[in-house]
Predict the structure.
Amino acid sequence: MNTENFALCEKIVSPSYIRQGLQAHRTHEHLIRLLIEKGKCPEDEWDENTIELFLHELAIMDSNNFLGNCGVGEREGRVASSLVARRHYRLMHGIGRSGDIAAIQPKAAGSSLLNKITNSLVLDILRIAGVRSVSSCFVVPLATGMSLTLCFLALRHRRPKAKFIIWPRIDQKSCFKSMITAGFEPVVIENLLEGDELRTDLQSVESKIQQLGAENVLCVHSTTSCFAPRAPDRLEELAQICAKYDVPHIVNNAYGVQLSKCMHLIQQAARVGRIDAFVQSLDKNFMVPVGGAIVAGFDDIFIQEISKMYPGRASASPSVDALITLLSLGVNGYKRLLKERKEMFSYLSSEIKKLSEAHGERLLETPNNPVSLAMSLKKFHERSDRAVTQLGSMLFTRLVSGARVVPVGTKQDINGYTFQGFMSHTNCYQFPYLNAASAIGIKKQDVDIFIKKLDKCLKILLKEKGISGAEMETGTAMLEKSSDADMGQLSETVQNNLKIGADMVNQPV
């Protein structure tokens, strides 16, 4: 309500009560005014009432919510289900127009404003997270792989003769297929083994640019966040090589926003060399549903060119989710999550180290990877590869998600390209290993339960396979042997909470 309506209310209810209500209403309006005025993520979290008030006020600015609106076009924001309408806060027109995802929609001023504000808040968070000189970004309703494809397609117009993308190997399908989908030929650069860690082969990257001819190279496609034992690419050196040969540089920063080390690498690389764009996932960094990404860079014109590559209008759902989440957290809430993640990484590292040593294995030394850890599985490799994959299956059926067991010598064909040793980022890693990561939102309870279940699975397998050391007991109370009754009770609790049937829980991988 506006001031005039509140004045009229004073004739119905005691003026002192109405003025108190007006003051409360102005508190909400003040927060909204600051948001629109500054275009930055608020320091402190908003309550849900304020967020919903803001979303409802945006929605009534869209033509589909106008009282008495008469729509005679083919797309008028009509929705058959009221449940769907409420799920989307009646923001039905999406974002952008047919020729540009960033364009303003004449009949959807509220949705257009939401899109602009979300992009502004995300840009603020990227700067706070460590890339201080980033100048432009936009939220796109695509996951990371397709967002990378958009970047490559935008570069095609700038480099029409180029047909190769130089790609330091990382065994993840979507980033590889993003290059194939864009119509380019990936040139895979194998990594160098330095101790336990896999690092970028800079000499091979530069030699390949010279061999192919810089004008024939669309870009270098590098990676920050990744699974150990691979480390983030040597971004600063790659950026310098790209600047030297005038070759564009696209960075896959999938879950790097939550990692200060990766954001620092991007900032420094842009300072000393060349980065044209970097892409990050919304769900991995901001704990929202899958389906959105952020494309960011240091050249406003190029970022606009990428946004114009998106054909047609787009779903507003990822933008709405990002806006609600950032307002719910505020800068301080997001910083708290980043701090907790870093603390849990140290804790997870120490616990895996103790567990691995208790079983005659070891935590691999990967000092340059700030999110993922790897534990050797040499004993299983000496006996059979089947035992390695069986460990992964056992963990999954015990409700452990996210852990990866990587055997030696797995072959994978992707779009006509064959990768030896797939999942290990190299043709033949020294031995199989298990991955675990400390990503944003992880809790101490997650680590403790994982370590307890992993310990039990290892003991069962070692005993079944007759491998020496099966009777080793850990020296910490946390790693004490859990009884079958305890495991059954835990499984039953989770099933009841998640409504998962027992037949599904026991389903093999």
About this structure: The longest strand covers residues 217-223. Confidence is low (pLDDT under 50) at residues 469-488, 493-509. The longest helix spans residues 317-358.
